[in-house]
Give the backbone structure.
Amino acid sequence: QVQLVESGGGVVQAGGSLRLSCAASGRTVSSYAMGWFRQLPGKEREIVAAFSRSGGNTYYADSVKGRFTISRDNAKNTVYLQMNSLKPEDTAVYYCAATLRVLLTTTPLAYDYWGQGTQVTVSS
């Protein structure tokens, strides 16, 4: 199995950027389809971005399309979420997740492994 640890969250002003990292250990990230999710208190966890195991297919939520980029560095065994032009509504706890499925999936229940989350706060 794989262990996931997120980092890179913090407080940033609207319009700023952050890069979240998801460091994997135990198995290589190339063995999984990966996703980034976010969650507000009392709300359901929602998909932000994801890619298939091969990395050939990617998905972005409409709310982040054109601003966020998901990527993977196999040599560092790390998945990233580059977040630009941040908005106050992007404030949430961000989680990375891995699934043994081959195809891209946007459903939280389909993911087998989760990190502990990292807080992102965007001030107006």
Observations:
- The two ends are 40 Å apart (CA to CA).
